[in-house]
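Please, structure for the following, as tokens.
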Amino acid sequence: MATTEAERLRLNRQYFEEGCLCILEAKTISPCKPDTPDEEAVAFYESNCTCSRTYIPKRTGRGPN
């Protein structure tokens, strides 16, 4: 069964909020408020997470990335 976009966003948000060391340990980012839409929360976490939870390749300034 295919996952809907809404479900994917909900699961990705949960993935970050339950295990992101940037939120839980280093406190370099704060968790989004519960009323923040999942799409906005996930975009924020994807842009700001620097721990092992991130799945977005960081730009290195070398090559096409």
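The chain has a mean pLDDT of 87. Residues 10 and 47 are 17 Å apart (CA to CA).
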